[in-house]
Structures are given as C-alpha cells and as structure tokens.
Amino acid sequence: MKVKIIGAGLAGCEAAYYLANHGVLVDLYEMRPIKMTPAHKTDKFGELVCSNSLRADSIENAVGIMKREMEEFGSLIMKAARSNKVEAGGALAVDREGFSDYITREIKNNKNITIHYEEIEEIDPSVPTIIATGPLTANELANNIIKMFDSDNFHFYDAAAPIVYADSLDYSKVYLKSRYDKGEASYYNCPMTKEEFEKFYEALITAEGVIPHDFEDIPGTVEKDNRNNPNDEVKVFEGCMPVEIMAKRGPQTLLFGPLKPVGLRKPDGTTPYAVVQLRQDDAAKTMYNLVGFQTHLKYPEQKRVFSMIPGLENARFAKYGVMHRNSFINAPQILNSNATFQTKKYPNIFFAGQLSGVEGYVESAASGLVAAINMFRYLNHKELYTFPRTTAMGAEAYYITHASKDGFEPMNANFGIMEDLNFKHSKKDRKRLYGERALEDIKKAKEFIEHE
Questions:
Q1: What domains does the chain contain, in order, with CATH numbers?
Q2: Which of 48, 171, 191, 320 has the greatest count of CB atoms below 10 A from its CB?
C-alpha cells in the first residue's frame, strides 16, 4: 500500500507517521526549502509560524481533551510537544526549534517514509492522497483545488506576535506570575498605570501598518485615505486578531482582553491598571513572546510602540510580528458528511490540517490523525470510521462537515460543538464530565479501530 501526502506541517507529519507505523509506504512532499512561504523561516517539518502555545492542557478544556485523545493513538505531534515543553502555567507551550527538530528527525528516520522536496501544483485523483498543505498553500495548487472541486476560494487572515530577548527586559519593572497563581509562575508581567496605558493605547491605534505584499491582498490593513479607520473589511480569525485592530474597537477591548490585569497582582499586593504578559518561547528561556500581541504594524512602529510597555523600554526583538493570508476549503461542500476528511467527489482524496477548515495547531494535527486512520481503513477496504461527537476529535470533524456552506469559517475545538451531556451540572462539573466522557469514548474508539 502506498499513499501520497502533500505538506510536511503538523497535519501532514501526523498523518505520515501514523500510516508509516502501520506499514503503509508514504511519499511525503514538501516544497520548502525549494520554495518558501511568506511566513516560514526554515526547512524543518512542523514549523510553528505563529505562537509557540498549543493552548490549554487540562481535560476541563476542549483542546486539552483533544490532546489526550491524540495521545491514545501515539500522536507524533504530542510526543514532540511533551518532549519540548516550556513553562506556561496551565497551557502547553513548546520550544519551537526543539519541537520542529523532533518532528523532522522522526519523519526522516522512518524507513516507510520517502521525502520529496518539490512543489506539487496538480492533484492526481487516481492516487490515494492526503492534501495537508496548510493555510499558506501555494497559489498554483490552491487554484487547481478550486477547479477540481468547483469551489470558491475562501480565506481569512491571521497574525503572529513579536518575540523579545529575555536579557533585554527590565527586571526592576516586570514580575514573574501566572494568572491567579495557576500552575507555575511562568509568565513575566509588564504592569501599566492608567496614564501609561492611555499613552500606549493612543500610540497603538495611530501607528502605521504594513503595506500588503502582492501575495496577500489585505484590504484595509493600511488605509491609504484614512489610516485610522477600523479594519472592518478584513476577514480576520478572532483568535489571531491583530492587537492594533482589536484596539480600534475601544480601550476596554484590550483591558478585558490581552491586557486584562485580573489575577495578576504585583509583588506589593496591588493590581495594576493593565498588564502585558510575556510567555517563554524557548527551553533555554532566552526569548519571550508578547501574549495576544499579534500585529501587522511596520517593524519600526512595533519597536516604537511596544517599547512603551513598562519593562520593554530597551527590549531587543528576536522576531517582529507578521500577518498573512490563510486559505481553507469550504469543508461542508467538499468533504463527506461522515466526518472522515474524505472528499465527496474523489474517494482517493482526503484533506487535513487548516486547509480542511479546522483552526489551531492541535486541531490541525488531530485532523491529520483522523484522515490517516480513515485512509488506512480505505486502503484496506474497511468502512471509514466516524469518531463520536462526544470526543473533541469527532466533534471538530462533524462541525466542519455539517456547518452551513454559506460563509463557512474555520473552527477551534470547544465544548459548544461537542455532544451535550443532556443533564444539568455546575459549570465546573460539566467541563470535567465532558473530559471524562471523551476519554472513555476515545478508548472505545481505539479498541474498535485496532481490533475490528
């Protein structure tokens, strides 16, 4: 048996790893470094181009449940994450270099995987294929996918936050603490007075944005006639909203959002007016990223405005924030309603990753795992397996294939799309019970898949 996988990101590598470890010969195609994307910086597999956080790690959170579900199936991405974990309170964050090194090493050392460094521009529907080219799918392939499936080209925009060097922080101003003292005190906090916040806010909403490149026609990012007009035309994923766009909705959007001071008292016991948090970005603790500060400001403007944050006055930037276009298919139109990531039109073709309509690192990897499990069953002439909606993986796959075709947008894992418990509990108990039920059902799913 042989499968073609296009894209060596999180979904593609997860799928390749599962299939190869089940005896399938995998041809894995990756265009980097022959052709780079606007956001990638290396030729490593599973490179994280935005945040280094895989979000909440508790089973009282839907994405935390999804992590445990993936681990039941020996997830490569979760092995890489656990092996390269950095302190992040209740979240799972990773040393991004070590994370991608781990994935690259495991893929390259697998005897059943053959790596091809080349750009794929067309899909052969006669060849069993998983398309996992991600949100930065090259234009030629994206256009051919649109033609193959008679679908419109959908996209949204997301952004990455800047990263600063730890040795350039002013430790007389920043303090180490996690919100409500939950988990390890692993975030550096930059406290602001009301006056400092107001000056920063004014600078942020009047700062100059980047003029879009040809590859990313982002209407409204820089308003040539009125630069301070809110960026209403841009279709931006809320989880990656540029901080300057968020700020234009009003100062309270920041104070109740990324600069929320609640649960972050200073060492003297007082609560600041606003707080900017810095999260560890590498295992050596040499770099920290500005939490919630995704941005598309010009680099000099980022330096000027973000240096107004107390503790960052002399900060050196390891990486400035960027914004880029993310592509995704109209999943309910293209994918089978059995929530297996197989396409309706071409049974040999499966999609996975953010291109399939899921959103988030963990969700992308999980979709690669579900697609691989079903590709393996397809190759062995078995009925494809639909994960129950009581599981996070099943709920995510079900949602993207049953959402409205009109105006479809990507979705993160969340309790709202999981099958309801159907009886009343307190909010805290409900979250725990969602997690316990999911883990029980994923074990049953694994038993069925492995021993059917």
A1: 2-157+325-451 (3.50.50.60), 163-321 (2.40.30)
A2: 191
